[in-house]
Specification:
546 residues; alpha+beta; four-stranded mixed sheet
Length: 546
């Protein structure tokens, strides 16, 4: 027994007891901290360390959810414990950005009737809004996109993209807003099809894209919110040109992306642009000052955007390949305002086989004009006919004409000295109005209601190359903002509509590669390790001698 007591009084035993006690305290602290952090919301417990930042939510969605004033419900039809952890985490982070979004998980195994009640399949999210009565479904395979084509090359399928933010923001926008826009894509002139990623972004913004053959039917539909012409290879006919000009004159919206065909071969289409103050330059545009790796025809244009056109543009890096140039000229009417939003530097040049004309060229421009719908209607009405004496025949036969200087009051009485006629006809030069005919110089109040004129804004957007939205370009250079600028330009045609189309994030493995090897790169790869090796060998050799 004495030996046991002495054993506990030794220095080694005291250190051992201290170590055990300290270890127990540390373990207890770790357990308590874990319990505390376990009670925190999931959005604070999960840190995004993924290379592509799949859990990072853009300012576009954050601002949209911040202004959300309608309650939206996410009903997740899946077994929560078995669902993809990335989807669970993102759904929690997304819903936490708005107090008006609630999430409910329903186990379809325990409640199989839920699939029928919601008319949805397992592993899907039903987004609904009670106020509008609208709902839509987002399946898990739309969030984690699988590339099945890889099976034919590798024998296995691979996950390609994560589109949680894009799908959910689009769904919330759909159920809370009734604004749906109709876009007609022209056909019949060798136009290029829109890339799949652009079509998908338009779907996310609730834009319906349909084809319209102007050659078969030049009358543009009344429900057309935007007429889109993508890289036409052939020119418009004269009837098509007149139909497009009439559509624009009535407050229509049109976007034109130029293709490889020269403007000289598109005289009628060039006439439409020229009427709105744009004239195509000959050849392709080069800019050695703002180009990609010394290729002067791969241009990073200078952007001049603001408002809706600038939303989502962080770096303003847009790349254009083989672009035609535009020169801004005087429009045919003073009411038309034409401005550029993409230009070259002052080192730009229009290059043809024979010439090279230097200057600053426009690569993207917008022409706007405010037109009066009542004025457009009046232009369509027939002009008053003249009689043999040159007087104008008035259709208004029940009102009173007043002499010059009198104020039209809209009733049948006139001031002394006025000539009261039985049919209220006006003298030659008087204007025919709905209520009262007056002589030239009279003040006409129109009708008794005094309603203001309805106005519309004509908008013609021209981008000098359709390669701006080419999928090979945008997929090769994923950091470019070509698609963002294009979708902003589309959305700018619609009042009260915001560009909420968000591109998916890549799940592909990212390797650390050096794309452009220079002197600094060579020094980092070979120079620094060599210096360290030589220094280490020198120290070792001196110590060995000592």
């Amino acid at each position: 027994m004495e030996k046991m007591k002495k054993l506990f009084h030794t220095t080694g035993t005291a250190h051992g007891i201290y170590s055990v006690g300290l270890t127990a305290v540390v373990v207890a602290i770790v357990v308590v901290v874990n319990l505390i952090f376990g009670q925190l919301p999931e959005k604070y417990r999960n840190i995004d360390v993924s290379s592509s930042k799949i859990y990072e939510i853009t300012d576009t969605s954050r601002n949209f959810l911040k202004d959300l004033d309608t309650e939206v419900k996410f009903t997740v039809l899946a077994v929560k414990e078995e669902a993809d952890e990335r989807i669970r985490t993102f759904l929690s982070k997304y819903a936490s950005l708005s107090k008006n979004i609630s999430v409910e998980w329903i186990d379809p195994v325990l409640h199989p009737s839920a699939l029928q009640d919601y008319d949805a399949s397992e592993n899907s999210i039903v987004v609904s809004c009670e106020k509008t009565g609208r709902n839509t479904t987002v399946t898990f395979d739309k969030i984690v996109v699988v590339d099945y084509s890889s099976y034919y090359y590798t024998g296995s399928i691979s996950e390609n993209e994560f589109d949680g933010e894009g799908q959910l923001t689009s769904a919330v926008n759909y159920v809370t807003s009734e604004a749906e826009k109709q876009i007609y894509r022209t056909a019949g002139h060798g136009e290029s099809m829109l890339p799949a990623n652009i079509t998908e972004l338009m779907d996310k913004n609730n834009y319906t894209v349909s084809e319209w053959n102007l050659l078969m039917n030049p009358d543009i539909p009344e429900d057309c919110d935007l007429l889109l012409m993508n890289a036409p290879a052939n020119d418009l006919t004269e009837d098509e040109r007149d139909a497009v000009l009439d559509y624009l004159a009535g407050g229509g919206k049109m976007m034109l992306l130029l293709g490889d065909t020269s403007s000289k071969d598109l005289p009628n289409l060039s006439a439409v642009m020229k009427e709105y103050g744009m004239e195509a330059a000959d050849g392709y545009i080069a800019d050695p000052q703002r180009c990609y790796q010394g290729n002067a025809f791969y241009i990073f244009p200078m952007l001049s955007v603001s408002g809706d056109m600038a939303k989502g543009l962080a770096s303003e890096m847009v790349l254009l390949i083989n672009a035609h140039g535009l020169n801004l000229t005087d429009p045919v009417r003073d009411t038309i305002s034409t401005t550029s939003f993409m230009t070259t530097s002052n080192s730009g040049a229009a290059v043809t086989e024979d010439t090279q004309t230097e200057g600053t060229y426009t690569l993207g421009a917008v022409a706007t004009e405010t037109v009066s719908s009542s004025h457009s209607d009046s232009e369509n009405e027939g002009e008053p006919a003249e009689n043999a004496d040159g007087d104008t025949e008035n259709s208004d036969t029940e009102n009173v004409g007043t002499e010059a200087g009198d104020t039209d009051t809209g009733n049948d009485s006139t001031d002394a000295g006025d000539t009261d006629t039985e049919d209220g006809g006006t003298e030659a030069g008087d204007a025919d109005t709905e209520n009262v005919g007056t002589e030239a110089g009279d003040t006409d109040t129109g009708n008794d209601s005094g309603d203001a004129e309805d106005t519309k804004e004509t908008r013609l957007t021209v981008i000098s190359t359709a390669n701006m939205i080419d999928s090979q370009l945008t997929e090769t250079f994923t950091t470019l903002e070509n698609t963002t600028l294009f979708m902003n330009a589309v959305t700018a045609n619609f009042d009260g509509v915001e560009n909420l189309s968000i591109e998916p994030k890549s799940l592909a493995v990212q390797y650390n590669t050096i794309q452009h090897v220079g002197l600094l790169s060579l020094f980092a790869i070979f120079g620094i390790p060599l210096v360290i090796l030589v220094g280490g060998f020198t120290v070792w050799f001196r110590r060995r001698k000592a």
